[in-house]
Amino acid sequence: MIARHQLSRRQFLALSGSVSAAALLAACAPAAAPTGGEAPAGQATTTILAWFTDRSTINRMTENEAIPDFEADNPTIKVEMQFVPESEIQQKLLTAKAAGNSPDVSSIDETFLDTLTKENVLLPIPDEVLNVREEMGELTAELYRIPHGVDDARYYGLPNGVFASALYYNAGLLDELGYTPDDIPDQWDDFIIWAKDVTQWDGDTLEVSGLSFYANEFSMYEDLRYQIGGPIDGNFFPTKESVTHADETGIKAWEFIMDLYKVHQLDSIEEGFNSRDRFGNGRAVTLYNWTWFNGFMDTQYPDVDWGLKIPPVMSGAPVYGRRGPDVGFTLTTQKDEHLDASIKFFRYLVSPAYLAKYCKLRGIQPSLKSMWDDPNFSAESGPRWAAIAVKNRPENSVDPGFWPIELVDINNRILPSIRDEGEDIAAVLLRAEEAGTAYLQANPQWSILTGADYAANPQWLTAAG
Q: Which of 338, 364, 390 represents a domain boundary (last residue)?
């Protein structure tokens, strides 16, 4: 068995006896175009097992395009891919580890990273394979090297990229209304006036929403906090032991959101119509949503001509709001003889060759800084990507890290209490703040990036981040 924290450079090279230093250097370079071919005569083929979270658009691409490309370039390795629902993959990995039959490579949600490292399910990523600081920036290099403050801390999972919310627009509806995407205002005050003008009600029925955001209010709240309070004070984690919701920034943000319903009537609470469905069915001019929706737009609503803009902001300038990680591929093999092949496949998954396909479907800006200037992922990349490229840069948005499902559940109680139950905003936020703080004080979290962390590391809010 391969023990946690024990893959030193010497041991890694010993386990990968067939991998020369030159091959290691090649593994760190962007993947080359497939050359095709069969396994050389006399060389055995290694078949590795990969568990992927069950996301149909990603998995179809991986199965039909990426794995054949990888196998063509690595004729002694075959990849068997199995799909596992995201809600089940952590428990299945724990069970497989205990039984000694773990998959060789696995994709996991970032919220599983802490438990799976503590339970020794994940192998450290050899430093020779990936220079995280150079390839992904300072913030990623600091956050993901765990356990923090320990001499032998290692990387176990890394973000494929970062998400953020964006403003989707229906280009066809805009054209019918006599507008272009450039006519959509960038500042909230002007945007609200414009959105009210294009919203259409028939009595109590909302025919066309100027801004559809039902079920996405918490994402808007996170953006508004940073826009109102700034990148440090806007963080609802002042420290790793405390949560802030009931401050002036939080109250203003939720009052603003409810005014979009009650005062400006841009969307409907009473209908309870999911904003994504409204937009996909052509009943919304714009949609406020995280960009994981990109793949769904292309597959579920192929007839809609859509694009993206940075959401409206208070000032019209950065900071635009929050971004968040998409983790990620991990090494989980328990077979020494599969380690070399597993590392090669892992490195392919964290390379421009694979991420160029993955990121478009997943709606994320690649974690590899070398890809940010790629024409497909830059500020000039067109109406379906430029907003992601701009908003998700570290100088334009804030990554507050990630937190466990227990904190997610606490935060998720805010929206229905305010929107559906009509409770007092300040009281709801204070309740969530107290519950969140109590949880953090009892359960310290390394994965949260707080206001204090950013104050101590201003470089994280620059291009270096």
A: 364
